[in-house]
Amino acid sequence: QTLIAEYDFTNAPDLDILLIPGGWGLYSLNASASDFIRDRYPSLEYLVSVCNGAELVAQTGLLDGKNATTNKSIFKDIEARYPKVNWVTHARFVQEDNIISSSGVSAGMDMTFF
Prior knowledge:
- It is a single chain.
- It is built from four helices and six strands, in the order βαβαβαβββα.
- It is α/β, with parallel strands linked by helices.
- The strands form two sheets. It has a four-stranded mixed beta sheet.
- The radius of gyration is 14 Å and the shape is globular.
- The N and C termini lie far apart (36 Å).
- The mean pLDDT is 90.
């Protein structure tokens, strides 16, 4: 079977919550993903990230000056690349305003009950 998405970054409907998952596929995304997040952020109730999905949010500048967390295995690297973010090392998830980030997949599950 083939799965064909009905929407893409150009025609997605209005969203209340935008969840940015992590994983290796994140590194193959282009600037249109960051642009989509940045453009949609003002109308979102919540922007949430799981694992290294926080890196994609950091690329938008939306985490600058805010507390956030990410997967512990990439902490040193992400702190160096995004020094304007206050990366919280020992946290399962962190909420700053309407942005919530979690440190990994299991923590992401915990975050959904927050």
